[in-house]
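Hi V.,

You were right to ask for the full record rather than a summary. Here it is.
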Amino acid sequence: MATTGCEYYTIATGQQQRQWHYHYTYYYQWLRQHENILSHYCTDGGQQLSLTAKRLLVASKHIKRDLPLQKIKRVSLQFRRLTFPLIVGAVVGCFAALATYKGIISYWIGISLTISGFILAYYGWLGSWQINVELTGEHTLHYFTDRRTPQLDEFINKANQQLAWFQVR
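Predicted structure:
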C-alpha cells in the first residue's frame, strides 16, 4: 500500500494538521494488473483519451500513445487560432480579388477564388480548442477538438487530480 502525507495549517485554529492520501494501486510493471479506466473522452477529430490510475492513453486512427502519469506535468485546455488557413486564405483571397479587378483572370474563377480564400481565412479566424499534455522534458503534445464541452472539462479536471496525486508523492 502506497501512502503519502503532506502537512498543512488550518486557517481557523492555526494548528498543524496532517492530511493523508491513500491509494491502493501498486505501481510495479511486473505485476501486469488490470487497470480500470477512470475517465474517457472522444474528441471531434477521432482521438480517444483514456485515463487510468497509472497512465494516459491517447488513440487515433494512426497513432497510439501510452503516457505514464509520472512523465506528465499537467493537462490543460487552450483556445488557438489556426494560423496556416488564416494566412493562406487571406493571401489567396486578396490576390484573387486584385487579379479579377485588373482582368488578369476570368470573372467567375476570380470570384470563386476570392470567396474560397476569405472562407478559408474565416475558418482560421474561428480557431479551435486544443488539449495540451505537458510532459516533463519541455515537450507538449497537442490534440485539437472543435468544442469545449462539460465532459471535456470533467476529463481534464479528473486527469489533473490524478496527476496531483503523483506530484504529492
